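[retry 2/3] Putative N-formylglutamate amidohydrolase: previous attempt timed out, resubmitting with same input.
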Amino acid sequence: MRQSSPFEIIEGNSAAGLALLADHATNLLPPEYGRLGLPESAFERHIAYDIGVEALARRLAARLGVPAVLSCFSRLLIDPNRGEDDPTLIMKISDGAIVPGNHPISSEEWESRLNRFHRPYHRAVAETITAVGAASGKAPLVISLHSYTPAWKGTPRPWHAAVLWDSDPRAVNPLIEALEASGDVLVGNNEPYDGALRGDTMFRHCMEAGLAHALIEVRQDLIGDEIGVAEWDERLGPILAGLNERPELHEIRRYPSRTGPYAS
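[retry 2/3] Putative N-formylglutamate amidohydrolase: success.
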């Protein structure tokens, strides 16, 4: 498959006050980039996209009736969940795989990828969040969906799901509590990654703006097929609906970031 638009907006009831995001939904590339010098098999791996997330985002958006924004380009081309000044924005090596199409790369090509893919995606995210706020008359709740590998460098990751965050606990604490309530889910709290990343999607659109938010990671083997996606749609749907009913998650509160002071 090949990329056409850099993003897809799934329409929904903006008045509900909730927006879903999927930064790494697809492994698509425009035809002119070929496969960035990589074998086709690389695009079935996590280095190219978050396995299972596109299907999960679509199901949750349909279940909840809310808008969602999905990226339509592989993070191997440029990573939408990184700030523009992040050195890992365009990876030369990803999990041991050298990406020939990214090295060497000219400053002109770097800027071109920002203008063609990264910036349009973030404009779509910003416009969707703004529309949700305008339609609902309250600060939107934003949920970002990701997935991670069952093991890293030979070490198993025991968590079934994880919640990543910086310093705003409003959506995070009740989300973790709800996920753990079933008794059959081990939840990582800022595991296997730390959610405080300056310039990433949550920082840019939520932390700086004071919007309640959470980044949910689901282990990829649990959403690698239709059955797993359906199970996690059934699990997450009611939880997210419950979160969205909380008034405190629709207020603007700007928390200091663990990454340092805001620019303004």
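[retry 2/3] Putative N-formylglutamate amidohydrolase: The first helix runs from residue 53 to 64.
[retry 2/3] clearing retry counter.
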